[in-house]
Amino acid sequence: MNIQNKKRIHLIEDEADISKLIQYNLSLEGFDVICSYSGEEGLKSIELFNGDLILLDLMLPGIDGLQLCRKLKEHKNTTNIPVIMVTASGEEEDIVKGLELGAEDYITKPFSPKVLIARVKTALRRSEQSATKKDDVIEIRELLLHPGKHEVLISGEKVNLTPSEFQILHLLSRRPGWVLTRSQIVDAIRGEGYAVTDRTIDFQLVGLRKKLASVAEDIETVRGIGYRFRE
Fold this sequence. Notes:
alpha/beta, Rossmann fold, Arc Repressor Mutant, subunit A, 5-stranded parallel beta sheet, 4-stranded antiparallel beta sheet, 8 helices, 22% strand
C-alpha cells in the first residue's frame, strides 16, 4: 500500500494496551492509524482528519460508543464512513443497537489480530464498491431507490435509512418475489461468516418497515424462511 493510497483508520479505544496492539498490527498492514482514548477526543480527531474507517469501542468514558456512532451517522460528512464496533462479550443488546444506528460490523474481545485485519479490509472494500457501484434506479409503485445517490423516496418524499437498512431494502427490492433467508441477507450485505443472530435481522426489518410507510406492506415475511419484496 503506497503512501498516496494509504487508508486512514480512526481507532477510538480507552484501554491503552489494546489500542497499542491494534495500532501495531494495522500499521504493519500499511494503514495510517490515529488513536483516540475517549469519545470526545475521537469526535474531534475525525472532524479534523476525516478517515476511511472507524474502529469504535462501545465502552468509552464520556460520550460512549453508541452515542458517538449516532453522532457520526447523523452528520453528512461522516455518515458514509464505515464503523466497526469493538465490544466485550455479552453485549448483544448494544451490538444490535449499534447495527441499528448504522455500524457496519463488530468484533468481540478478545479477538485475533488477523480476524480484525480481515474485517477491516472487508469493510473498506465494501465501502469502495458501494461508492463506485452504478446500479440502475429501482422504481416499484411508490418506491424509488437510487443506489448511486444512496437515496430512497416514497411517493416523492425522501426517507432516511441507516446503511444497513438501505442495503437490505436494495437487496430485496431488486429481486421482487424472491424469498431470501436471514442468513442469505447477512451474507449478501456483510459478507460470509458474519456472526449475527436471526434476531438482529428481524430487528433491522422492524425499523425499516416503520420508516417505509405505505411501502412497508411490500416487504413480506415468509414464515419459517425469511423475507421477500412483493412482486
